């Protein structure tokens, strides 16, 4: 029978394949954002959404050239639920996966994965170093500067907003609000 890891198991699995502080921090940030969005869109499954966020880049540190496909393999070997695996693999749509995000959880993961990195980079530049006082306009300014946090794909972020039917500023605002609820322990 297919299962879904509880949050403790997901965190252990994340740390089994990831040692770099940046990767663990990113996974925890995305997990917290997913938990926040789940509380609004799927309140019965907040742990499920959070576990998806924790493990979305499970393979990236060790197998960047096999991103998403190696995660699928690792999770299938453990007998995890196909819906859980699909949600994780769909975040690489158009880059390293042909699994298109179709439900709200998958679309939010796709849209916010890159965006959390951009928002985090903008926040670090502020005197507070925090998202707590970060306005959308500051993120939009840096969004329009491709050399800033160049690894954060503006195309994917925009595509994610479009998938959700949200304006870019709405996606940024909602993601900032979600990041304000995250306590990262990397």
Features of the shown structure:
single chain; 186 residues; mainly alpha; Hypothetical protein af1432
Give your account of this protein's structure.
- By secondary structure, this protein is an all-alpha fold.
- The chain has one domain: Hypothetical protein af1432 (Orthogonal Bundle), CATH 1.10.3210.
- It contains nine helices and no strands.
- Helix 3 crosses helix 5 and helix 6 packs across helix 8.
- The longest helix has 22 residues.
CATH class call: Mainly Alpha
The total count of strands amounts to 0
Count the DSSP helices.
9
Q: Helix- and strand-based class? A: mainly alpha
Gyration radius from CA atoms, angstroms: 15 Å
Task: Please provide the ordered H/E string of secondary-structure elements.
Answer: HHHHHHHHH
Global mean pLDDT: 94
Overall, the morphology is globular
């Amino acid at each position: 029978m297919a299962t879904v890891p509880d949050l403790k198991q997901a965190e252990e699995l994340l740390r089994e394949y990831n040692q770099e502080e940046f990767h663990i921090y990113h996974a925890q940030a995305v997990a917290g954002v997913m938990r926040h969005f789940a509380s609004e869109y799927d309140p019965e499954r907040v742990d499920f959404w959070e576990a998806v966020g924790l493990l979305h880049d499970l393979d990236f540190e060790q197998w960047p050239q096999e991103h998403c496909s190696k995660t699928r393999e690792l999770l299938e070997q453990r007998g995890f639920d196909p819906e859980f695996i699909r949600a994780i693999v769909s975040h690489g749509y158009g880059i390293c996966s042909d699994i298109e995000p179709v439900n709200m959880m998958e679309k939010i993961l796709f849209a916010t994965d890159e965006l959390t990195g951009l928002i985090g980079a903008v926040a670090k530049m502020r005197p507070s170093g925090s998202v707590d006082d970060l306005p959308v306009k500051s993120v939009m300014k840096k969004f329009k500067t491709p050399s800033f946090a160049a690894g954060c794909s503006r195309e994917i972020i925009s595509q994610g907003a479009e998938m959700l039917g949200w304006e870019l500023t709405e996606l940024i605002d909602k993601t900032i609000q979600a990041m304000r609820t995250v306590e990262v322990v990397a």
